[in-house]
From TrEMBL:
It holds the Pfam family GHD. Residues 1-27 form the signal peptide. GO terms for cellular component: apoplast; plant-type cell wall; vacuole. It catalyses: Hydrolysis of terminal non-reducing beta-D-galactose residues in beta-D-galactosides. This is Beta-galactosidase. InterPro entries: BetaGal_gal-bd (IPR048913), Galactose-bd-like_sf (IPR008979), GH (IPR017853), GHD (IPR041392), Gly_Hdrlase_35_cat (IPR031330), Glyco_hydro_35_CS (IPR019801), Glycoside_Hdrlase_35 (IPR001944). Its EC number is 3.2.1.23. Residues 621-708 form the Beta-galactosidase galactose-binding domain. The keyword Hydrolase applies. It comes from the Eukaryota. Residues 362-418 form the Beta-galactosidase beta-sandwich domain. PROSITE patterns: GLYCOSYL_HYDROL_F35. PANTHER family: BETA-GALACTOSIDASE RELATED (PTHR23421).
């Protein structure tokens, strides 16, 4: 028997040894064909995309808690290069772009992180997250074997990796990052651009491997991803997918919860029954990681939306744009996650036996030698329910559904049987919130000559603006000889203008001649109209308007915006005059932007008017008012139906672009969308004939109790 003193020493020794053993266990993330192995444990993982800049830091803790409570293991996000390095060499990691803070909050919520460094994101984000300055580096060619691009790309990726290592944010350092992604859906580029693209894709992969992040790299939609990088699937369904090597796990980086909404298109909703069906179909065929894109979509604040993409990025997410659970989707998927977690060891330690039960029905049975039994019963018929006999027991399955039997006997979950409570969300008007409007209308010429410059010929929009504003003015003078025939015969000359997009507002002698805009499919704009000119000097002013930069495609360096010509005036004594071949005066941005109207409402030099003189239905008009914050914590939104097109700021924060005049067209059904049958990006549309977007999210954290400035 030990003496008290000896017992004390022995207990201290045991404590010391135990502590040493805990500290000496090395964190690891590896994989085999069945799944990721985190610290020695093979896992089935549920993940959800939440993009940090599409919500506010004040929203992050609640969003991440709801994700964890909903049964997620991982939060997935892109890294948005143009948000972090808007000007070459000047970096920003604050506010909504505080990436490190977001990752640390995810860990505090008990979540792992998948970091999709890219640097190409797509994500319906402005320029695919590439900074605009990248386009103007001499010799630049995007996403191809090109030294200027590879140099900048490697520099950026290395900066992010080094920053995260310094913060000890990889799982092997005690952090939450278990996966990182290099490039994004690059296979599509290879198909289009051939050998030089393939060389770049392999270079990018090996460059990433050389950074030694100690957790696996992934490449989505990249069938030739080199070892040890894991190729993954993006689609509405990924049960069909197999990675390019038998020893790699089957992972789904984007299970699309809906589809992107553009200005001019209606929103798409994906039925929760079909979403659950797709997840179970994936897991029963060997899938080990499912990521919902998007779990919370959020908002394209400021000017971050890609070309013609709506400001709302709700994406019919499991958590809506405002941070509220989308019920019954959130509850229905939460139950699915719980059920699969109870089956995890059995599924991961065996291969399924497939038992046909009908022309569109089957059972997949996991029955490892170590014990346990899990069955998935599937009815793939999109229209007809069935009664199945499985192991001498009867089961009723709705159409297009899968039942989970954790003991191979009791069906505890079916993808089409929804028990979660449905909630209806309603916007309640805040009476008297927005009154006492004032307006300020800009002219077509700048009152400050220091803000203008003259160039011969026409210059590309983005080359001048560098994406610091949506707007660029082109102004030129046209001299009409008093002897011109049209001054006497009434046959006005024809003004023809071609613009590469996206919008074009035309003025002649300060009189509006027309407002025109393109679309995502056809961004180019054509103006052709007979115009009134006078003898002597006439002024033609063209306002080019961008609606975000394209986010998908190839050869970003060749994409153009603005008035590039031809610009001609026909019906003159001389015939046709080429206006592109003369001097043009340029003004970058709006006068109100120079005066700081979005942030302060301007200074005393700005002559705001109100009451009967308030400007209405006139382009280039600024409006402002003040309001007090509604009581409570309910989410807030602006109803913009009475406006046309522009941008919104609240207390200097960019709410985003609005375009209420853009009406949604498509094949909408007046009936609720039926969940059965394969989902696609034209199914389950609603809201045709209405503005594409009416409500614009205003985060509570941007408001003061009183005196909030809306511009």
């Amino acid at each position: 028997m030990l003496s008290p003193a000896a017992a004390k020493v022995f207990s201290l020794l045991l404590l010391f040894i135990s502590s040493w053993e805990i500290c000496s266990v090395k964190s690891t993330v590896t994989y085999d064909r069945k799944g990721l192995i985190i610290n020695g444990q093979r896992r089935i993982l549920f993940s959800g995309s939440i993009h940090y800049p599409r919500s506010t830091p004040e929203m992050w803790p609640d969003l991440l808690k709801k994700a964890k409570d909903g049964g997620l293991d991982i939060v997935d996000t892109y890294v948005f290069w143009n948000g972090h390095e808007p000007t070459r060499g000047k970096f920003y990691f604050e506010g909504r772009y505080d990436l490190v803070r977001f990752i640390k909050l995810a860990q505090q919520a008990g979540l792992y992180v998948t970091l999709r460094i890219g640097p190409y994101a797509c994500a319906e984000w402005n320029f695919g997250a590439f900074p605009a300055w990248l386009k103007f580096i001499p010799g630049m060619e995007f996403r191809i074997d090109n030294q200027p691009f590879e140099l900048e790309m490697q520099k950026w990726v290395t900066k992010i990796v080094d920053m995260l290592k310094a913060e000890k944010l990889f799982e092997t350092q005690g952090g939450p990052i278990i996966l990182s992604q290099i490039e994004n859906e690059f296979e599509l580029v290879e198909w289009n651009l051939g050998d030089r693209a393939r060389v770049y894709g392999q270079w990018a992969a090996h460059m990433a491997i050389g950074l030694n992040i100690t957790v696996p790299w992934i490449m989505c939609k990249q069938a030739n991803a080199p070892d040890p990088i894991i190729d993954t699937c993006n689609d509405f369904y990924c049960d069909w997918f197999s990675p390019n090597k038998d020893y790699k796990p089957k992972m789904w980086t984007e299970n699309w919860t809906a589809w992107v909404q553009q200005f001019g298109t209606p929103p798409l909703y994906r039925p929760h029954e079909d979403l659950a069906y797709s997840v179970l179909k994936f897991i029963q065929t060997g899938g080990s990681m499912n990521n919902y894109y998007m779990y919370h979509g959020g908002t394209n604040f400021d000017r971050t939306n890609g070309a013609f993409v709506a400001t709302s990025y709700d994406y019919d997410g499991v958590i809506d744009e405002y941070g509220l659970p989308s019920e019954p989707k959130w509850g229905h998927l939460s139950e699915l996650h719980k059920v699969i977690k109870t089956c995890e060891p059995t599924i991961l330690n065996s291969e399924p036996t497939v038992i046909p039960l009908g022309p569109h029905q089957e059972a997949r049975v996991f029955n490892p030698p170590t014990g346990g039994c899990v069955a998935f019963l599937s009815n793939h018929d999109p229209n007809l329910p069935v009664n199945l006999t499985f192991w001498n027991l009867q089961y009723e399955l709705p159409p297009w559904s899968i039942s989970v039997l954790p003991d191979c006997r009791t069906a505890v979950y079916n993808s089409a049987i929804v028990t979660a409570r449905k909630t209806e969300k309603k916007m309640i008007p805040f009476q008297g919130a927005l009154q006492n409007w004032e307006s300020y209308s800009e002219g077509t010429s700048s009152s400050d000559s220091s803000k203008t410059f003259v160039k011969y010929g026409l210059t590309e929009h983005l080359f001048l603006t560098r994406d610091t504003t949506d707007y660029l003015w082109y102004t030129t003078e046209v001299f009409i000889d008093p002897s011109e025939g049209f001054l006497y015969n009434g046959q006005d000359p024809l003004l023809n203008i071609m613009s590469a997009g996206h919008g074009l507002n035309v003025y002649v002698n300060d009189q509006l001649q027309g407002l025109h805009h393109g679309s995502l499919e056809t961004p180019q704009v054509t103006f052709s109209k007979k115009v009134k000119l006078r003898g002597g000097v006439n002024k033609i002013s063209l306002q080019s308007v961008a609606v975000g930069l394209p986010n998908i495609g190839t050869q970003f360096e060749k994409w153009n915006l603005g008035v590039l010509g031809p610009v001609t005036l026909s019906g003159l004594n001389e015939g046709t005059r080429d206006l592109a071949k003369q001097n043009w005066t340029y003004k970058i941005g709006l006068e109100g932007e120079d005066l700081g109207l979005p942030f302060t409402g301007g200074n005393s030099s700005v002559q705001w008017v109100q009451g009967p003189t308030l400007a209405k239905n006139w382009p280039g008009t600024w409006y402002k008012t003040t309001f007090d914050a509604p009581e409570g914590n309910d989410p807030l939104a602006l109803d913009m139906r009475t406006m046309s097109k522009g941008l919104i700021w609240v207390n200097g924060h960019g709410v985003g672009r609005y375009w209420s005049a853009s009406i949604a067209y498509g094949n909408c059904s007046p009936h609720p969308c039926y969940y059965g049958g394969f989902m696609n990006n034209q199914k389950c549309l609603s809201g045709c004939g209405k503005p594409s977007q009416i409500w614009y999210h205003v985060p509570r954290s941007w408001l003061k109790p009183t005196g909030n400035l809306l511009v």
